[in-house]
């Protein structure tokens, strides 16, 4: 058995859910695909597919084997690509996923410049607010925001992820402006469903090296409106419906235009105790492909340090 060809046939069949479609994709006979799968199942001692008139469905063993087989195939593909393109520019199809709101504002606008710099890279953009399995979704690189969980994935910090408390001028005219974090408990707060709970944590900006006793200050909030979309929370805040804790990459335009006001600038606000960031995440590989490295380096350079969306905001720590 050609094990390499058999594994490729299995992965392709798992995606297309059909031996005949897999045969067309790989330009071989359907009987060859069937033989490959039968030999793999005999070698592994387990059924990989449940077969029905509706198509192929992976068994539990098939799902496990597919996950690990795709890692191995990606590693072999990367080895071939990296070795064969040592003296070439980055090339190939790059599949990228990112949160929708961040992607619209800070990834898509810079794509023309990226594609001009790297004319041999084709892009497949997947906007998704849920966390995709990079291996199963065949993602080359993901932009993720927040605190990364422990995992086998590789990651590079692209930029800080800062949140600020803000509200519209009309809201503050009606309700007054909070002077310290404790005052927020008396205000109507717009809540984001994606946050773990209705608690915000505050650290003074001038605490460059906070002491252990300077733990983030938690403030319990209340509010009548909750939404699962950050753009919706932004628009509600601009409309004067309450205070919001918004990322600077989302709120910076409204702040510069005066539609929102930044309050408590001497405090850094978070949705949890750990410090979040904006990350580039990619599957674990010994060698990062040149197209992934090109994308990550380009956007790290484009975002800048501090990131361009924080220009003019009061975030510089005092010495």
UniProtKB/TrEMBL annotation:
Keyword Glycoprotein: no
InterPro entries listed in its UniProt record: LysR-type_TF_proteobact-type, LysR_HTH_N, LysR_subst-bd, WH-like_DNA-bd_sf, WH_DNA-bd_sf
Keyword Transport applies: no
Any Pfam family: HTH_1
Domain HTH lysR-type: 1-59
Keyword tags: DNA-binding, Transcription, Transcription regulation
MF terms in GO: DNA binding; DNA-binding transcription factor activity
PROSITE patterns assigned to the protein according to its UniProt record, in alphabetical order: HTH_LYSR (PS50931)
Family designation: Belongs to the LysR transcriptional regulatory family.
Listed name of the protein: LysR family transcriptional regulator
């Amino acid at each position: 058995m050609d094990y390499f060809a058999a594994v490729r046939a299995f992965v392709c069949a798992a995606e297309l859910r059909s031996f005949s479609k897999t045969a067309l994709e790989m330009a071989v006979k359907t009987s060859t695909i069937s033989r490959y799968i039968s030999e793999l199942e005999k070698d592994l001692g387990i059924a990989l597919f449940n077969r029905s008139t509706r198509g192929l469905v992976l068994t539990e063993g098939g799902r496990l084997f597919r996950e690990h087989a795709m890692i191995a195939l990606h590693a072999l593909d990367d080895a071939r690509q990296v070795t064969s393109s040592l003296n070439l520019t980055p090339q190939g199809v790059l599949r990228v996923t990112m949160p929708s709101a961040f992607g619209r504002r800070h990834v898509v606008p810079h794509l023309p410049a990226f594609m001009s710099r790297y004319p041999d890279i084709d892009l497949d953009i997947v906007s998704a607010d849920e966390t995709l399995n990079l291996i199963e979704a065949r993602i080359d690189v993901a932009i993720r925001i927040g605190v990364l969980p422990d995992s086998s994935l590789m990651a590079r910090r692209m930029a800080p992820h800062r949140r600020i408390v803000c509200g519209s001028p009309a809201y503050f005219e009606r309700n007054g402006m909070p002077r310290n974090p404790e005052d927020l408990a008396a205000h109507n707060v717009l809540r984001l469903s994606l946050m773990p709970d209705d608690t915000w944590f505050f650290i003074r900006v001038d605490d460059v090296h906070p002491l252990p006793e300077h733990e983030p200050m938690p403030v319990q909030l209340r509010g009548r409106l909750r939404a699962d979309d950050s753009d919706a929370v932004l628009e509600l805040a601009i409309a004067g419906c309450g205070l919001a804790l918004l990322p600077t990459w989302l709120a910076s335009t409204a702040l510069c235009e005066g539609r929102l006001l930044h309050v408590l600038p001497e405090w850094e606000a978070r949705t949890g105790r750990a410090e979040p960031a904006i990350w580039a995440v990619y599957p674990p590989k010994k060698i990062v492909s040149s197209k992934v490295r090109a994308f990550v380096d380009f956007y790290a350079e484009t975002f800048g340090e501090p990131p361009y969306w924080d220009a003019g905001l009061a975030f510089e720590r005092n010495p």
